[in-house]
UniProtKB/TrEMBL annotation:
Protein name per UniProt: Ornithine carbamoyltransferase
Catalytic reactions of this protein: carbamoyl phosphate + L-ornithine = L-citrulline + phosphate + H(+)
GO biological process: citrulline biosynthetic process; L-arginine biosynthetic process via ornithine
Record-linked HAMAP family: OTCase (MF_01109)
Aspartate/ornithine carbamoyltransferase Asp/Orn-binding domain mapped to chain residues: 150-300
Native organism: Candidatus Egerieicola pullicola
Pathway: Amino-acid biosynthesis; L-arginine biosynthesis; L-arginine from L-ornithine and carbamoyl phosphate: step 1/3
Binding locations of carbamoyl phosphate: S53, T54, R55, T56, Q80, R104, H131, P132, C133, Q134, C261, L262, R289
Sequence similarity: Belongs to the aspartate/ornithine carbamoyltransferase superfamily. OTCase family.
Length: 302
């Protein structure tokens, strides 16, 4: 892996993504047989959280433990960062104690600054811009079920948010066709649209069924992300009908998978029926967070 950090999918090339996924597959397989690799023995990961989390926190903490190291949960409520200590100083201080930092925050710039001013690997555990750890787990799950990315079509329906941004980049980088259906006013980030615009495998549309046509994997995400709670009522109106339901599945390939990063809002972006019919794939996806992140930590922090 050439990168010293995991800040966004845009930074990774196809070979690096596959290197992470291959190691993740190996770690998952070996974990089944009780084989542990304590490659991070004696190392500590600091985990800064400025937003809530179930999966990210627990999977990083358990992953670090399984690799022989330890993880520290650092809520921004308790850190001086939360009282205005600059990220440049936080980065330089934490670099003296820790061997890696995972951060979940609002602005992507904060994550980039942590990497710039610190001297240890930084892993993005979600920003408003992107969610690379999630998308690595998603790609791992797609390959687990479909065996290869060749010729597959990914479809994302909903808010052009952190998940949309990372899925578009990740899907295109591994060679999938990617169709995104996002309402006007809720399009993916311009940086991502610029990255994708000349790629013949990319489609951006306002037509859900056009995006879903022949899809091999359908993704969606919540209508209002963390930090957008004050827009929730407006968004409920704007996103009405932007949902994965039976009609959308009928447009897709009969063998189509459904993925959701979770937490899910049944009855909003996905129906209860579709969610439960595809629960095995969705919870495999959640499990794969652990394996994909162990691979990332092993590659960056060893
Ligand atoms: N998908 C995901 O990142 O979940 P958490 O918010 O629970 O970490
Ligand atoms: N888009 C969601 C993803 C949660 C994992 C959010 O940012 O809240």
């Amino acid at each position: 892996m050439n990168n010293t950090h995991l800040l966004k999918m845009l930074d990774l090339d196809k070979e690096e993504i596959l290197e992470i996924l291959n190691l993740a597959d190996q770690l998952k397989y070996e974990n089944l047989y009780g084989i542990q690799h304590h490659v991070l023995q004696g190392k500590t990961l600091g985990m800064i959280f400025q937003k809530s989390s179930t999966r990210t926190r627990v999977s990083f903490e358990v992953g670090m433990y399984q690799l022989g190291g330890e993880a520290l949960f650092l809520s921004s409520r308790d850190l001086q960062l939360g009282r205005g200590e600059p990220i440049q100083d936080t980065a330089r201080v934490l670099s003296r104690y820790l061997n890696g930092i995972m951060i979940r925050t609002f602005a992507q710039k904060e994550v980039e600054d942590l990497a710039k001013f610190g001297s240890i690997p930084v892993i993005n555990g979600l920003t408003d811009f992107c969610h690379p750890c999630q998308v690595l787990a998603d790609l791992m799950t797609i390959r687990e079920y479909k065996k290869s990315f060749d010729g597959l079509k990914m479809c994302y329906i909903g808010d052009g948010n952190n998940m949309a941004n990372s899925l578009i980049v990740g899907g295109l980088k591994v060679g999938m066709k990617v169709a995104a259906a996002c309402p006007q006013g809720y399009l993916p980030d311009q940086q991502v649209l610029d990255f994708a615009k000349d790629n013949p495998n990319f489609l951006l549309t306002q037509n859900i069924l056009e995006a879903a046509a022949g899809a091999d994997v359908l993704f969606t995400d919540v209508w209002a992300s963390m930090g957008e709670e004050d827009q929730a009522e407006q968004r409920k109106k704007d996103f009405a009908g932007w949902q994965i339901n039976d009609t959308v599945l009928e447009a897709a390939n009969p063998e189509c998978m459904v993925q959701h990063c979770l937490p899910a809002h049944r009855g909003e972006e996905i129906t209860e029926k579709v969610f439960e019919a595809h629960a095995k794939e969705i919870f495999d996806e959640a499990e794969n967070r652990l394996h994909a992140q162990k691979a990332v930590m092993a590659l960056l922090m060893k």
